[in-house]
Specification:
The chain has 155 residues and is α/β, with parallel strands linked by helices. The chain has 5 helices and 6 strands; from the N terminus they run αβαββαβαββα. The chain is 32% helix and 21% strand. The protein has a 6-stranded mixed β-sheet with strand order 1-2-3-4-5-6, with helices on both faces. The longest helix has 14 residues, at 137-150. It is globular.
């Protein structure tokens, strides 16, 4: 059984927004309904993450991290959602689509691809799960994933 104590990357030559391709890949990797996982989506990839989370449910998906998942609704899931946004405006718009357990937004704002590609250098505000505080995007992501791992039941 393959379990996520390691990271797996959906191949970039696939359409990251397509849930059917992501499901097929997860089955080949032995990740489909085999163990608790956390899903991280970037941009349009959040569409596939949302669909897969709906299909698998909270029994298998322990957390969702949506990186610049503009207008992707995360309402109605019993799964913790963590959102990262490249600027305050995107963050504020994202709240209407299911703000999640905790959020981070870059301040000053950065380019959409910069958030994904250089999280160690992106600073901004973390909130939702605590009083707003200054943070680094990579630390927020690490906390979100580690929190999901720590809350998983033993297999």
């Amino acid at each position: 059984m393959a379990c996520l104590t390691d990271l797996r990357w959906f191949p970039e030559d696939n359409a990251p927004f397509c849930p059917m391709l992501a499901e097929r890949w997860m089955k080949r990797e032995g990740l489909w309904r085999s163990c608790p996982i956390s899903l991280i989506g970037f941009s349009a990839g959040c569409v596939a993450v949302r669909a897969i989370a709906s299909e698998l449910g909270s029994e298998f998906v322990k957390a969702i991290v949506a990186v610049d998942g503009w207008c992707v609704p995360f309402h109605g899931l019993e799964i913790p959602v963590y959102r990262l946004s490249h600027d305050r405006a995107t963050h504020e718009n994202g709240l209407a689509w299911g703000g999640g357990r905790a959020q981070f937004y870059a301040d000053p704002g950065v380019g959409h691809l910069c958030l994904w590609g250089d999280m160690e250098r992106v600073t901004g505000w973390r909130g939702g799960d605590r009083e707003p505080e200054w943070a680094i995007a990579a630390d927020f992501l690490r906390d979100a994933v580690q929190g999901a791992i720590a809350s998983r039941p033993a297999l």
